[in-house]
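FAQ: What does the model actually see?

It sees only this:
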Amino acid sequence: MGDALFRSPPCLTRRALVGLACLSPFVSLAHAAVAELWAEASEFSERAKQLAGKPVEMRGYMAPPLKPEVDFFVLTSLPMAVCPFCDSAAAWPEDIVLVFLNRPVRAIAYDRLLVVNGTLQIGTETDAATGFVSRVRLRDSKYARA
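And it is asked to produce this:
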């Protein structure tokens, strides 16, 4: 999910590193597997309800998008070589997450494992701009190759 997001980190001084180490016990990012978000009968799990509205990190793959530059994409737990929007016979897997990015990025290969950080939202919602219906979303997201 995009080369524009990969920049060299600024050089850290020893003082900055020590300061970050002191803060680390107070900063937490929940790690959530897509499968952890679901209970039986397509209900949200208790874990999903606990993480709703909080920053989370997820791993997965960018489903092939409709265009080369995107401001959102679908995160899947397994790589998908075919865009379900482009092939009427293809079907979306049930364990997907709609990822809204802070800014448009160039799409990457469908078989690259990604680490995505964003704020978890759950509940059925229709995106006004795209018409895409989702049950799980990450907002204000950033990603990196795993």
